[in-house]
Amino acid sequence: MRTPTTRRPVLAAAGLTAAALVLSILVAVSAGPATDAVYDPVPKMPAQSRLGLVLSEYASFPRSTPTPAPVDQRLMRTARINTIMELPDGSGRRAVPDLNGNLYLVKNGVPHVYLDVAATFAPRFFSGRGLGQGFGYVTFHPEFGSNGRFYTLHTEQASATRKVPDYAQSGTIYHGVITEWTAADPAADTFAGTHREVLRIGFGGPIHGVQEINFNPTAKPDDADYGLLYVAVGDGGLGVRNGDPQNLGMPHGKLLRIDPRGTDSANGRYGIPPANPFVGRNGALGEIYAVGFRDPHRFSWDLATGRMFLGHIGEHAVEAIDEVRAGDNFGWSEREGSYVFDKAATNPCDKLLPLPADDERYGYTYPVAAYDHDPPPGWDCTSDLGVAVAGGFVYRGHDLPALRGKYVFGDLVDGRVLYTEANEMRRGAGLAPIHRLALFDAAGNAVRMQDLSGPGAPGDPARVDLRFGTDAAGELYLLAKANGKVWKVTGTRSLPTATSATPSYAPTAGRPTGPR
After folding, report:
1. Least confidently predicted of 36-40, 214-218, 461-465
2. What's the whole-model pTM score?
3. Which of 132, 144, 261, 504 could be stapled to 140 by a disulfide with Cβ–Cβ 3.0 to 4.6 Å?
4. Cα(426)–Cα(75) distance, integer angstroms
5. How far is Cα of residue 86 from the mean position of the Cα atoms in its chain?
6. Which domain holds residue 391?
7. Which residues form the Glucose/Sorbosone dehydrogenase domain (predicted)?
């Protein structure tokens, strides 16, 4: 990470010669008071890999429009598709949610509308405020083929409904709602059946809501985790002094785990798994599985090992991959990545501090991989750099041997596709190295996701809005809201050198692009 000219240098006396130490002192005096602030939290940038992915277009989705018309023009994308997954019924159909309201099923690359979520909940449904608002996610019960049950996540305006959230921040302006649907005929190509509300959470800010809901695909029917629904809840975007992520009496800034078929929750519409880590603790919600998140954007399980990895979008400088276990506390907003987050810093450049010597007593868990924002010289430490991690998947498919065991993820804004080795991501062992993958289109041309995804958002021409997905065989897909397309990774290529055929990415400095 380059050090902006406005920043003050950090003094490290150990290992310096006397002359170098004097020089450092003179520099520090000329630049301002010395500080312990950390300006380069991840010094090693993602290295260009010799491995490249071949991307073939798989599906294209029709244009959709946010409701109401957005003020933020970054919401004007071709189709705000969020993920792709295969239905667990052996049909080969894939599901794709569009934030603007439609649930699509795709067969042989051809999409059709299965369910209009926006129309079902109109006029309360809204997708025109906040980058993650609307029909955010869908997941299917592992026995969908026989029971027809699946679950959706959508947002509603608080002012447009009389419904009361089960849990809410002060000044709530919108609700994140989880709904259970039961299809009368699971094999049908359009939905007919019933639905019921499971959980409703109120948020006081327009961003960092409920980001993903999902079942653990590695759990077997006789496992305690089978059929339990994981819910990634953001902090509501209320600012760095928001204490909710550390408040065990609130679901905000947490990863929850619930039993959607149980009834012993406070609202009686879902169950509290007895093995959850905070069950029975005074003042704590039994739903909580892990604590201390700002924006837990996407999570997945390694199908070979059962380890859960989560892409955690940072505030000031650190984009993290966390390995999540029951009871973990990832520290926000006391920590960002593996640094103290100084909420009281008067200089906006001085947000990150080294961990204290007695840090173990706090019990925080730190990332297994991370990259930082790498701002250009002269950055004022306040403008949004447009960097945000998009969590991905450990590749365990069969078609691409060169990818096996690699956790493939990326940056959702500029579209960089990255990987790290799953076996190098080890808790307590520092950060695993991150590598940038080269990309090729089906004709063999070197490309960037910015090239494939076409025009960006108005005022933000380089924005990709990258997402990842997989099918039942574990094969990998990339999605872009920018042009509403999905690509399948159909091959790999080995480059002669790590710098050949690798187009550079457009600079991001000064662009108000990040989903903060």
Report:
1. 461-465
2. 0.91
3. 144
4. 37
5. 20
6. 56-435+449-488
7. 134-424
